């Protein structure tokens, strides 16, 4: 019966079967495509997430590198600023100290009736024999040989006898000019071994000679001070003014602890008023020194040697000439002036035995 129905509706059955098969294929294909799309979507999501994470990481790295470069640039700029500030601070301190010294120079008390000239110390030359100071002023500025040189420094007075410590401005001797160039000059300090300065003990007025020591010693000595003069550590020493170079009464230093007594004289170490290690500026006293009266004072060494005179002949020897002298005198009186031999020269005048030594002293 089914076969009859199918044979009767053969065309329609074929059509229905074909439609059914097509629908089934479409449904299956749709499911396959859907599953494939889902798988592809999952794969793409995985790779997309990976690339997204990588991209974000790269972006953060680039941002971090940019921030690092900015921080480093800022750090370098800050370092340069700090260095510039330090240089400015050092220069400010130097200018402040120089300003203080210049203000001190303006407050300089009158050291003499002569004009003064400020100069800057450009070098100090201590060697094995001489210790000299070079300044930046010379003959073009009015500096001449033998002009005295002083300095102005601030010293701290320690507290004592319930008095607080205080600072005060002092003037002290540095030395004298020994060599002059157009724009520089050389100073022989009082501490040099060839320096000689006449000084006085301020409290007694007694004279002494200030001698420098070796170039490596900062404490000069006073010598030829009478043994009857009582001195003690701390006594002030000032210039005597008798050497024709330094004005009278300029501070030199104070007596130290070392006091020696040699024969009829005594000597002691002197602590100079001026600290030569802190010497930056000096003051040249433009005093015209009569160099002709100082010919006996050579520049190097600065010493004076007394002429060695021949000891006087006793009166007894003058009254009793010996026999040989008498015979010679008789023969001389017997010879007539016109009978003198032609080869004999005129008698030479007697020489002063002190002349060679005096010339050496000059």
UniProtKB/TrEMBL annotation:
GO terms for biological process: regulation of cell shape. Residues 319-341 have a biased composition (Basic and acidic residues). Residues 302-362 are annotated as: Disordered. GO terms for cellular component: plasma membrane. PANTHER family: CELL SHAPE-DETERMINING PROTEIN MREC. Belongs to the MreC family. This is Cell shape-determining protein MreC. It comes from Turneriella parva (strain ATCC BAA-1111 / DSM 21527 / NCTC 11395 / H). The lineage of its organism: Bacteria, Pseudomonadati, Spirochaetota, Spirochaetia, Leptospirales.
